[in-house]
# Entry
Amino acid sequence: MVTLGGDAADRSGDAADRSGDVVHTRCGHPAGGDTALVSPNDLVVDAAGGVWFTDFGVQHDTAGADRPGVVFAPADGGPLVGVVWGTHQANGIGLSADGSELYVAETHSGSLWRFSVTGPGSVANGGAPGEVHDGTLLHRAQGAMFDSLAVDPDGWVCVATIGPGGGVTCVHPVTGEVRRVTAPDDLTTNVCFSSPAGGPVGAFVTLSSTGQLGHIADWAAARG
# Structure
């Protein structure tokens, strides 16, 4: 592990157990019928146990226009539901603390979108098969691409950023303010937060071109 701004530490560790059962391969359409998933990617779990996830393989400028880029898996194990349509390689996904807003990052366009959650597996502006969603664009990166995201304890939407300087792009969903926390790797692909007892909230970031895990001990101080 690498402490950002510090020295490298031991990166050894056991591989995770990757065994498991396939539970879903297809996603339902609101008007009936279903379609195959292409390349499911990131996920976030809501307060009720429902799983919202992106399908990175969907591209709105191809035949993927009839596939959802954001999908919902009900907590009871029921059929998958298409949520957001007309995305282009949707990747990172997250929810606001109160579950009222869904955030989605597209990789190659470097776009961060916001959708209003109206219920389990439902948003107000997600579009329909063959259409493009009407989400709110929170930010579009210039000269960079977006990967996974997480919402920090202060409500900032923090997106792992691929491009010169790498790091994490932080967007405030209310004010629209944008801040950047740089990292020593142009291929920063994931971010998550930890809250040790008695200490400040920290962040872990994956540094993919070097195969390292970076740690930021005081996230709020780094974000500013």
